[in-house]
Amino acid sequence: MTISLKTAAESHADHRHWHSDVECWKDDIENWRAEHSTAVAQLQEALRQINEHGASLDQHADSVASLEGSIEYHEKNLATSLQNGSDTELDQTLCDQHVKQSDLHRRQQEAHERIKKHHHTAMAQVAILKAALAAPM
To answer: Hey, CA dihedral for 95, 100, 101, 106, is it positive or negative?
Structure first.
């Protein structure tokens, strides 16, 4: 590499340019630090929401377990009805229970699909953020 000799004026011009670059870089760093502070606060809020999401998953699991129990209870009532000779038609009580059970199942299925969509979206965004932060600077 050959370095050409410069005049003092040309060297001084280089220095002015370099100082200008340094000032721009310092402004960038100041802005980045402000953005970093905001990001830390946003991540703390996101962590709170992720923990809340986990609590919601626990509640959903409890709802599914409760639904499973009510299905088993309803099935036992149906089996008892069959054992007592009611093979063709359900009595009104069992029919009403079945309609209620069907509605509970439908609502649980809708809730499960909403939770699944939300969960997959949120976890994909966490993975994207993790990958972006893990990339070298």
So the answer is: positive
